[in-house]
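Ticket reopened. Same input as before:
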Amino acid sequence: TPQGPAAAQGEATPASAPREQEGQTTLTTRQGHPVTDNQHVRTVGPRGPVTLENYHFLEKISHFDRERVPERVVHARGAGAHGVFEAYGTVGGEPISRYTRAKLFQEAGQQTPVFVRFSSVIHGGHSPETLRDPRGFAVKFYTEDGNWDLVGNNLKVFFIRDPMKFPDLVHAFKPDPVTNRQDGQRIFDFISQTPEAMHMITFLFSPWGIPANYRQMQGSGVNTYKWVNKDGEGVLVKYHWEPLQGIRNLTQAEAEAVQGKNFNHATQDLFDHIAAGQFPQWELCVQIMSDGEHPELDFDPLDDTKLWPEDQFPFLPVGKMTLNRNPENYFAEVEQAAFGTGVLVDGLDFSDDKMLQGRTFSYSDTQRYRVGTNYLQLPINAPRKGVATNQRDGQMAYRVDTAPGQNPHVNYEPSVLGGLREAPRAGQPHTPYVAGHLVGQTLDRTNDFGQAGERYRAFEPWERDELIRNLVDALAPADTRIQERMVELLTQCDADYGRRVAQGLAQAQPADKQAQAVQDAEQHSEPAQPY
Ligand code: HEM
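Engineering reply: fixed in the latest deploy. New output:
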């Protein structure tokens, strides 16, 4: 085995090659120097002082000083796993090519490697996994046409329908900038002035807001995407992951009992099941709608606060995902993984969903800051297919994105000197016609309360009881103006919903305030809007 500085600098020794010596691997510095003393700094005599030229010590400590990178601004706590996606080749009994030309879906049994990262949203990288929070469900498909990221959540709807509001939403849920504590008053100050959030809030404060673990939860792309076929025709689609392990949620009391013993239970559950060969699986389903505004519906198909009713838009299975391999290194694979809604392959497209477009800027923007300019050169993010670009240099450039036969002098296009060429088109382009006034406006069909009320009524009684209890607990410390606004909004979803929260709040308050709160709620009580 080559040893010493000269060998380490030579091309023949890859950085990862181990150095064997007497059956053990020798510790080296990052410069490849074998380390003969890893126990002592160099000092003047045994009692010090320390000298400054102690290169090995300085390198070791200064790398340690830089071990952390900024964590994700949201979804910081996560767990990941590798696996495979297997296509069915059909959708709703028809060849899938009728709707999309995306290669990964075409053939029954066709396999695509994937990497998945599950997460919770609001708190930091080591926060408890039992908190009431949406869960992230981000999948990177390493397809033959390059990567496709499906960046979803467990819940199928979202709090807001305009990306302008996202930083405010997140600030309201994050800890108070003074006390550094999450605060129901701040959350509901924002939410009580965001009527479109009622549907999401109804899910979040029910047991659906605390999935039992990552294996037994659904996933959803939430936003509306498009599929495009070889003729360039588009349809609107929504994506859903259905767990073959079933769905399990926790009550608040169950979550507290889990947290008392183990605040990493979801990460552990995923890792242990995969390590034991019990591989979790999800079926990928889509809902399809013809492209257009659909004035016959009482919601806009581009509104991510709404579900597409399953009786009109059935869930159609298109493939199955199996997670079968744990990461070898958490930081390299899970922490540095970078998913984004802009990462689509041919045959998959954006819809006009404003949230989707706002998100598409945000992900790669934050990743250039969080991971670095060349984050796509890291093995977890790089496509398996190979990359040949004219992008060069930048911090931490790890290699040149060149292809065999590419003239290394030509890092521009077009060129007749052996540079890279544009690819032929796979099919007709999808060219939707767009015209209108530039405005800052909300969608016409808001219908903020209809589906929230339906959800409230569809819950099982114990889920409804939990929802009321959890909302009352979170709202009880809030300012009366905020409580009143929330009761008013919930009453518009369903009269019983508003009344029960008002009663709960009245009981949670000192006696003199109780009568007033019930009286106020009765004044606001109107019949629920028909959905
Ligand atoms: C992560 C922005 C809405 C799902 C992130 C990150 C940002 C972000 C900046 C951190 C990414 C990173 O550091 O790598 C936004 C914006 C949104 C939005 C601006 C709205 C305008 C949503 C919605 C969903 C979602 C609606 C669910 C469909 C996720 C997931 C992650 C994430 C799953 C974690 C990805 C991972 O595991 O690395 N988001 N987000 N986000 N977001 Fe969003």
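Residues 72-75, 78, 117, 119, 136, 138, 151-153, 158, 163, 166, 222, 337-339, 355, 358-359, 362-363, 366-367, 370 surround protoporphyrin IX containing FE (CB under 6 Å). The longest strand covers residues 77-87. Please confirm and we'll close it.
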